[in-house]
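Course assignment 3, question 2. Fill in each field.
Student: A.L.
Task: Predict the tertiary structure for the chain below.
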Amino acid sequence: MTEQTPRICILGGGFGGLYTALRLSQLPWENDEKPEIVLVDQSDRFIFTPLLYELLTGELQTWEIAPPFVELLQNTGVRFCQGIVSGIDTEEKKVQLQDNTEIPYDRLVLALGGETPLDIVPGARYYAYPFRNLTDVYRLEQRLRVLEASAADKIRVAVVGGGYSGVELACKLADRLGDRGRFRLIEVNDQILRTSPEFNREAATKALTAKKVFLDLETKVESIEEETISLEYKNQVDTIPVDLVIWTVGTKVAPVVKSMDLQHNQRGQITTNQTLQVVEHPEIFALGDLADCCDAEGQQVPATAQVAFQQADYTAWNIWASLSDRPLLPFRYQPLGEMMALGKDNATLTGLGIKLDGSFAYLARRLAYLYRMPTLDHQLKVGFNWLVRPIIDTLSQ
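Answer field:
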């Protein structure tokens, strides 16, 4: 690395990290200013997480929502490095990977996302299935196939968490298993989708009821065993037989982030200013799940894919500005509404004065996510496949 060639190291290839890298590659760098951009992720594929559920029902294929980084970064000048981050030396400005590789940096982007906390309840780590990445999907798919191939009359499924992930999973799995499934959605609060618009909550409740998903509200998981789950409701604990427990509750910051000598909040998230720079470390930017961030109006922003998607634009711009002596911009979050799948051919869409549910909302959700996919080339491949696949399926019947 020379003085003339700054290096930008981006840790994490989710919405925050990948979209920051792509945006940086598009900015108008002067020839003598153009930096080296390195994207580091432990997986070889980007995951479009809002569409992960569709893999379980066969509505989408892996290549559509999880394209390889190498493919996405072709002709961008961004170098991809697959590896697990083991340490970050903020004094020496170096990132250490588990294979002992060291990556020096001039600007560092922390976008490592979060992890599913499985240490909250006894037995969850051993018997519950998280749902956050492709590995989780493959494990869950394998378990479902074993259950579907068994002689059991009913497949008993408990989904822990009544937020977006839990509701979407319950609906998709109910469609997959049909009458053979016995579902319960467990939520500690007195309603599902507590922070969501009422329209979404009502549509979700209607869909869950139609799919015969039983709602355990104001219910706490006490423990999970191999074939049972113990639930506490109004100080009474019941132990219920179960074949599959899926855990969708909460998110926690990765240990490598928590161990950094930076300013953290109580949840371990890194505190940033409004330009997404880490407090007392202007050369480090943080976004997504691991960032404790306020927007230009001083409002706390939620840790969602939509926020990370928007933060990526600002992060890229502000890195470019910081390396070319231009003013940095405070992050301005624009809530664009919420979308949620409620099974096959059903969804809700709210925002910008629009409220939709049913098959039209399902189509609108698909098109909105197609538009947000990372590169034009991938958008065209996926869009073309979505057009021709129904025709091929019809002809092959």
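Instructor remarks: The chain has three domains: 7-42+83-115+252-323, 124-247, 338-395. The radius of gyration is 22 Å.
Grade: pending
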